[in-house]
Write a structure and sequence with these properties.
It is an enzyme of class 3 (hydrolase). The protein is α/β, with parallel strands linked by helices. 36% of the residues lie in helices and 21% in strands. The protein has 7 helices and 6 strands; from the N terminus they run βααβαβαβαβαβα. Helix 5 (130-143) runs parallel beside helix 6.
Length: 187
């Protein structure tokens, strides 16, 4: 992989917030993902790259999607502070925060606008969950024409199978898959 063009590349970190990271994940724990993602955030900000921290939140629950489904959406508990970014990334300067109300980070946010205004054509994606927030954002990014790099060891899912499926069958159709060390070497 060639070096990343920092001025045209953004790191997009999905849902590394207290209420999501605390859940059970595989193949990596929330703690492992936070450790890798925080290294990426620090490295990207040190190089002056655009870093976007995305979280899901609700004002009163009425602003969230509620479609009719065959299976129940696994509702996360929402104690006070559930939607706060984890401390490892919450106080890093020069990051841009986006709040979404659904799985993907594009719909209903200004993510595309902010990326285009900065001349960004490549997104490096990480976060939780591989098969929900990261995957949906990746599909939306693909539809918007962005190049994508998925940091496989800086994301995780509810199960090994979900993570493996998305990384094996979906992400290769949308972009390139790398690990944290490979990305850090390309900065």
């Amino acid at each position: 992989m060639e070096n990343l063009e920092i001025e045209k590349t953004a790191l997009v970190v999905i849902d590394l917030q207290k209420g999501i990271v605390a859940g059970e994940h595989a193949p990596y724990t929330g703690k492992e993902v936070v450790e890798k993602a925080s290294k990426l955030v620090k490295a990207f900000t040190d190089k002056g790259a655009f870093v976007v921290l995305v979280k899901v939140s609700t004002i009163d629950g009425k602003d969230m999607l509620k479609p009719k489904l065959d299976s129940e959406i696994n509702q996360i508990k929402r104690p006070e502070g559930w939607d706060s970014y984890v401390p490892e990334i919450s106080n890093i300067k020069n990051t841009y925060a986006i709040t979404k109300r659904q799985w993907g980070a594009f719909y209903g946010t200004d993510l595309d606008l902010q990326l285009r205004r900065r001349g960004i054509d490549t997104m490096v994606l990480c976060g939780i969950s591989t098969g929900i927030g990261v995957d949906t954002t990746a599909r939306e990014a693909f539809q918007h024409g962005y190049n994508q790099i998925f940091v496989e060891d800086a994301m995780t899912a509810r199960s090994r199978e979900e993570h493996a499926y998305v990384c094996k069958y979906i992400f290769p159709r949308l972009g390139r898959i790398r690990n944290t060390e490979e990305i850090l070497e390309q900065l």
